[in-house]
Amino acid sequence: MADWEHTHPINLEEETEGQLAVDVYIKDNELVIVSPISGVTMNDIEILVHGDMLIIRGKRLPPENPKITDYLYRECYWGPFSKTIILPKDVDIDNIKASLKDGILMIRIPKLKSDTIKKIELE
After folding, report:
1. Which residues are CB-neighbours of 48 under 8 A, at least 6 positions away?
2. Is 82 in contact with 102 (CB distance < 8 Å)?
3. Which phi-psi region, left, alpha or beta, contains residue 89 (left: φ > 0; alpha: ψ -120 to 50)?
4. Average pLDDT per 10 consecutive residues for the chain, totaling 123 residues
5. Which long-range CB contacts under 8 A does 78-81 form with residues at least 24 apart?
6. What does the H/E/C string look like for 36-80?
7. Is 81 exposed, middle or buried (0-12, 13-18, 19+ CB in 10 A)?
8. Phi, psi (5° rounding) for residue 4?
9. Domain for residue 115, yes or no?
10. Taking Cα atoms as reference points, which of 7, 8, 64, 60 lies closest to residue 35?
11. How high is the pLDDT of residue 116?
């Protein structure tokens, strides 16, 4: 066995599901969600809203299918992934826009106007 084989251990266990890294911020009265998600196409991603949760899920396939024993070093995640984000109450889920460009997923959700003040009368 070569020396380099001892210095780069390989995890032979298959991971069940990967997590997406996301940034979430507010800009120009929109909630913006950004995720670097290279290696997928729009057909590989599904974006759902369920109640107050935004769910991003999909699958990233490797460009080739080497056998697990062929790896010398393995850091990239290939397979199914998902991310669930709890949405604030003041967003317009009927007007969500999503795009995928240059490996960056961007989701924009307009914020609802909340300028109204409601006075509660005592009974």
Report:
1. 54, 55, 57
2. no
3. alpha
4. 46 65 95 94 93 94 85 86 94 95 96 77 86
5. 79/14, 79/15, 79/17, 79/18, 80/16, 80/17, 80/18, 81/17, 81/18, 81/19, 81/20, 81/57
6. ECCCCCHHHEEEEEECCEEEEEEEECCCCCCCHHHCCCCCCCCEE
7. buried
8. -65, -25
9. no
10. 60
11. 65
The pTM score is 0.75
Residue 17 lies in a domain: yes
The number of distinct structural domains making up the chain is: 1
CA 70/CA 47 separation, integer angstroms: 34
Q: How far apart are CA 93 and CA 104, in angstroms?
A: 21
CATH number at residue 92: 2.60.40.790
Q: Please, what is the end-to-end C-alpha distance for the chain in angstroms?
A: 83
What residue type is assigned to position 86 of the chain? I
